[in-house]
Amino acid sequence: MPLSAHLKEFRNRLILAVLGAAAGAIAGWFFYEPVFEALQQPVLDVAVRDDAAVAVNFSGIATALDIRIKVSLFLGVVVSAPWWLYQLWAFVAPGLRAGEKRYTFGFLGAAIPLFFGGVALAWWVYPRAVEILIGFTPESATNWLEAQMFVSFATRLVLVFGIAFVLPVVMVALTWARVVRARTWLKGWRWAVLLIFVASAVLTPTPDIVTMMFMAVPMCLLYFGAVGVGLLRERSAAKKEARRAALTDDVDVS
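Structure (tokenized):
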């Protein structure tokens, strides 16, 4: 395909992914209150347990509406994950041979659980992150958490974990499509590990090393797992090519 066709295909897949997320956001609008209460619960727990002056503060007349829209969009991205992950695979799939496109279910079967696994891990880390950050507030001070920043903090944490856990599956897809060789991923493992730890330190919104490790260690394991799958795939493809070449030589000799 020429570059213009690739760009057109990418545009179409992106539009479909956005439409799916928008549909999920419409549904998320009606689940705003229980979700926001769940996001706010760690703050309330800290306030009650430590008798601290801490609360989520809506500081503007339109802030409540902005927060509802933001939470709805967040829910739309999360619940529509199977749809936009399929669009990602559909963009890569044209680079595969006809017999390899059957691996669509394998890609989605790995990517979807990994995404929601990352979301679940982030949800487990989230209350601990809130507790650690609020703990830096001096006893004599009051901590009014601005609602916009608070929701951005929570939603970013969840989405970063979810998307990060899908990246190794994208690596496998690129290897399957022969865009990047598995040995290339393997040769760059030192840089990959370094970048994973740096990204984990930057993207996790808490200053402690424990939260960073919760993201970095699984990511490293998934990275090497993706490299291993890619190497097995290339070895299998090489054996098939060798058998095909041997059969061709036998036919030529005959």
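The two ends are 38 Å apart (CA to CA). Strands lie at 54-57, 143-146.
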